[in-house]
């Protein structure tokens, strides 16, 4: 797999999910500016590889910002460093010597059929497509977390964060895949489906039990910014401190004391597309609209006379995903950090 992240809280859960999944072989990770700046995304990603006990995995820094507009980040959503209330030790791992775009292109050439997963803005995938126009035919599958179709946006009334940050890149990506054969169309996990993936405190409690971690903690609104997890398992300590920030953020917007787990869901779909039902559509991105810029538009019925360039996830069972997340990450955390004998 070739990952492209803007680590961020939910990106970090996607990384843990993939590290906990034996069928996932991570070839390289592109660090893309989005939730936080490129350097912080790279540092967060390296630190997550340490926490997750990963072997050597290439992490390549992407462009400093979007293709055509200034970078906008969202520390209010993901915390000052992008990992919520959690603070991880700075990793001693070195960044790759090549750019994220070059890494995408060279890994895809070296590993035809590889699975691509984008959980951040599409800046570096767009740059990679400029280097290697054959990418749509080299990748075996591409899963994109981004967009909103028959569903409100989360950044403006109609657009979703990853597209909002770099709409020009998103348009270049969807246009480039217009030539892809049907089985190589990007599988798009937009807010329509990812906002049904509502993590709640009880999911963290189940994760703690699966990991054999103690105490089992149930974060709640009003605990305040200073509270920190005392969980015995370092993965659980991280998850409680990171996800609690996300709970507080959603609670602050009256969405409930929950967190939409966009990216680990997209990661699970990248490993097992059978988790979702999809519908083909032609997707394009509005660039010129004054109030609709960065809106993703799906032509489901061929009104534009263009071939479909995406398969959009339209159905899933969130409980199946959470069972898989808890089983995999819980068991992995237990194996990585076994509790000392009583
Ligand atoms: O809109 C949700 C997406 O934007 C997620 O990938 C989140 O991490 C942010 O990147
Ligand atoms: Ca993300």
Automatic annotation (TrEMBL):
UniProt keyword annotation of Cytoplasm present? no
Task: Name the InterPro entries on file.
Answer: Inosine/uridine_hydrolase_dom, IUNH, Ribo_hydro-like
Per its UniProt entry, which superkingdom is the organism in? Bacteria
Query: Which keywords has UniProt assigned to this entry?
Result: Glycosidase, Hydrolase
Keyword field contains Oxidoreductase = no
Residue ranges of the Inosine/uridine-preferring nucleoside hydrolase domain? 1-323
| Stretches of the chain forming a coiled coil according to its record | none
Q: Please name the GO terms that the record assigns under molecular function.
A: hydrolase activity
Q: Record's Pfam families?
A: IU_nuc_hydro
What protein name is recorded for this chain?
Answer: Nucleoside hydrolase
Q: Native species of this protein? A: Nocardia rhizosphaerae
């Amino acid at each position: 797999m070739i990952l492209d992240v803007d680590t961020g809280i939910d990106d970090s859960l996607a990384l843990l999910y993939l590290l906990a999944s034996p069928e996932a072989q991570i070839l390289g990770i592109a660090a893309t500016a989005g939730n936080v700046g490129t350097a912080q995304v790279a540092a967060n990603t390296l630190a997550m590889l340490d926490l997750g006990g990963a072997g050597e995995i290439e992490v390549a820094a992407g462009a400093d910002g979007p293709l055509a507009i200034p970078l906008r980040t969202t520390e209010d959503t993901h915390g000052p460093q992008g990992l919520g209330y959690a603070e991880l030790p700075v990793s001693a791992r070195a960044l790759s010597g090549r750019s994220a775009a070059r890494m995408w292109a060279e890994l895809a050439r070296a590993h035809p059929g590889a699975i691509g997963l984008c959980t951040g803005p599409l800046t570096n995938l767009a740059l990679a497509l400029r280097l290697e126009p054959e990418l749509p035919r080299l990748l075996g599958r591409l899963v994109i977390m981004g967009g909103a179709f028959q569903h409100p946006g989360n950044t403006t009334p109609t657009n979703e964060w990853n597209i909002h940050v770099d709409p020009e890149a998103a348009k270049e990506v969807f246009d480039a895949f217009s030539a892809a054969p049907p089985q190589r169309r990007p599988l798009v996990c937009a807010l329509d489906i990812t906002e049904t993936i509502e993590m709640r405190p009880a999911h963290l409690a189940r994760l703690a039990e699966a990991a054999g971690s103690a105490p089992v903690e149930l974060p709640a609104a009003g605990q305040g910014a200073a509270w920190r997890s005392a969980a015995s398992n370092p993965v659980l300590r991280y998850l409680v401190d990171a996800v609690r920030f996300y709970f507080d953020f959603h609670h602050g917007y009256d969405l409930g004391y929950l967190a939409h787990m966009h990216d680990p869901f997209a990661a699970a779909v990248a490993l097992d597309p059978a988790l979702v039902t999809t519908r083909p559509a032609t997707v394009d991105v509005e660039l010129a609209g004054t109030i609709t810029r960065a809106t993703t538009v799906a032509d489901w019925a061929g009104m534009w006379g263009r071939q479909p360039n995406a398969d959009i996830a339209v159905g899933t069972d969130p409980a199946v995903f959470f069972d898989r997340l808890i089983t995999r990450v819980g068991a992995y955390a237990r194996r990585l950090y076994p509790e000392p004998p009583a």
